[in-house]
Amino acid sequence: MLEIEATLIICSETPQKVVANVAALSSAGQYALQPRPPASIRDYYLDTTEQILRQANFNLRLREIDQALWLTLKGPPKRLAEGISERLELEIPWSPDSLARIKADLASRDIMLPTIPLTPGSTSPLVALAAAGLETIQQRDNHRQIRNIRDCAIPDNPPLAELSIDSVVYHFGQRPIRHYEVEIEAKSEAGVTALPGLTQGLADQYPSTLRRWGHGKLATGRAIEALLEQGQLDSLLGNDGELMPSAYLEILDHLQYRMS
């Protein structure tokens, strides 16, 4: 299926306050924001030593969410508008058969992962995946606050979209880096149509702190890691490792340079 979503990063010297303010909203323009239970998420992104997936612009993720495990394949993003993109997404419960299914999907696109079989009886998916030639390239935790987005004029209809307020912690060695963003994912055809207005309406409420962002968390994390190694973010972090507004300028420059 296709994932169509918009991303707004939180650029503030007090990002937790912005998170709290956005979480307190009950509406955005003509749309109602209905709370759902929050989620605790741990993500592991995987690739081969040769970075086969990165070269093909595909992502493979093992996600632990409230004790359930999911394996997710994401394809190359296609830009639809500023800060809005669509991409292939295949998300299925973790199992050896799920990995085989994803390998077959990639093989149909001439992307060949190692043919090493999973270790029978392994209790750890990460150990099994590593033995099958897939190593962890990025780990992060995310406290996600979720809202269903509905049109106030037709509240009984299914949600148009889902709003996620993400408090992300990247783990680079012993150094946690904190990043905050808001995602809006369309959940219907009507949601796709409404997505630009939804995104703009939310950005208009916080014009100085919510900024459109055309990059996923994996690419953003890679840029952060590279800049940390170069020492370019040392003075651009808060006391708890929060990315300050000036840090995002460095991150964006790095991402745009890599794309040029």
Please give a structural write-up.
By secondary structure, this protein is of the alpha+beta class. It contains seven helices and eleven strands. It has an eight-stranded antiparallel beta barrel with strand order 1-7-5-4-3-8-9-10, surrounded by five helices. β6 and β7 form a beta hairpin. The two termini are about 30 Å apart. The model has no long low-confidence stretch (mean pLDDT about 95).
How would you briefly describe this protein structure?
This protein has 260 residues and is α+β, with helices and mostly antiparallel strands. It has helices spanning 15-23, 52-56, 96-107, 125-131, 189-205, 217-229, 245-259, and strands at 2-10, 27-28, 31-47, 59-65, 68-74, 78-81, 84-93, 135-151, 161-172, 175-186, 210-212.
Lay out the secondary structure.
Elements: E1 2-10, H1 15-23, E2 27-28, E3 31-47, H2 52-56, E4 59-65, E5 68-74, E6 78-81, E7 84-93, H3 96-107, H4 125-131, E8 135-151, E9 161-172, E10 175-186, H5 189-205, E11 210-212, H6 217-229, H7 245-259
Antiparallel strand pairs: 1-7, 1-10, 1-11, 2-3, 3-4, 3-8, 4-5, 5-7, 6-7, 8-9, 9-10
Helix pairs in contact: 6-7
